[in-house]
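Duplicate of earlier report; Helix-turn-helix domain-containing protein input re-posted below.
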Amino acid sequence: MHIAQVPPVQAMTVPEVMAALKLSRSKVYDLLRSGQLRSFTVGRSRRIPADEITRFMSQNMQEAA
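Output:
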C-alpha cells in the first residue's frame, strides 16, 4: 500500500500574502484586481500561488534597478 505524501504549501491565502509582502489587505486586493498578482478561487476562497509571489517580487526588483 502506497501512502501519498502531502506536498508543501503551494498556494497562499490573502492574509499569508499580506504577511509575506508586509502589505495591507486593501493593497493586496488592489494588486489582485490590477492583475499584478494572479490568483484563483476555490469556492469563495481566493488563493495565490506561492511562485506568483516570487515572480511579483522579481519583477518589481528588476523594475526598481
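The radius of gyration is 14 Å.

Merging into the original ticket.
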